[in-house]
């Protein structure tokens, strides 16, 4: 899932108005931010398999330290604790931790049965929505649109940057999603995958920071 994670982050702003949109974006994508670096270190493994599902060309072979349910709980506790350590805001820390954990529960909807429950067990789960392109597009779009709507209803732009930053961010998400859904398979190279992922995150997180610092909670 791609847009769905960010849609949840947009919506979480209502539950934790003191948490920046940048922090919420990092939280919902935390395990995906770790993942390419573990691929580069050969700790986790993925294969580029064109047509593996109707939506993605990735065949996830081994990623228990980033994408197992147990490690999702662990990473959520770690990120929530770090946020609390610096901000001393229990409610916001809880939302950050749950945002990290939410990644697994949204992924389990779309993935084929390749998501491990624990780092060391053999049980893997997944509901397989990626086998249907229309259903995936519909589900991701509903979550994303709902999250953006909640964010817009609970914040307002204080200047042009707050207005056009949000417009640019949404536009970029739509373009990236279309490319993910209908573009060619990525290069079968871990360094190239890491590079493209870093570029994507820099753009998304940069626009999130620009947007949110120029909007205020209603």
Structural write-up:
The protein has 218 residues and is mostly helical. It has one domain. Helix content is 67%, strand content 9%. The protein has a two-stranded antiparallel sheet. β3 (115-116) and β4 form a beta hairpin. The two termini are 30 Å apart.
Task: List the main descriptive attributes of the protein structure presented here.
two-stranded antiparallel ribbon; 218 residues; single chain; 67% helix; mainly alpha; globular
Global shape: globular
**Structural class estimated from helices and strands:** mainly alpha
Strand content: 5-15%
Based on DSSP secondary structure assignment, what is the total number of beta strands? 6
Strand arrangement within the widest β-sheet reads 1-2
Please, what is the average pLDDT? 95
Pick out the low-confidence regions: none
The first-to-last residue Cα distance is 30 Å
Biggest β-sheet description: 2 strands, antiparallel
| Helix residue percentage | 55-70%
Topology as a string of helices (H) and strands (E): HHHEEHHHEEHEHHE
**Radius of gyration over alpha carbons?**
17 Å
Domain unit count: 1
Number of helical stretches of at least 4 residues: 9
Structure, briefly:
This protein has 218 residues and is mainly alpha-helical.
Map the helices and strands.
Blueprint: H1 3-15, H2 21-28, H3 30-40, E1 45-48, E2 58-62, H4 64-67, H5 69-87, H6 90-110, E3 115-116, E4 124-125, H7 133-154, E5 155-157, H8 160-182, H9 190-213, E6 215-217
Antiparallel strand pairs: 1-2, 3-4, 5-6
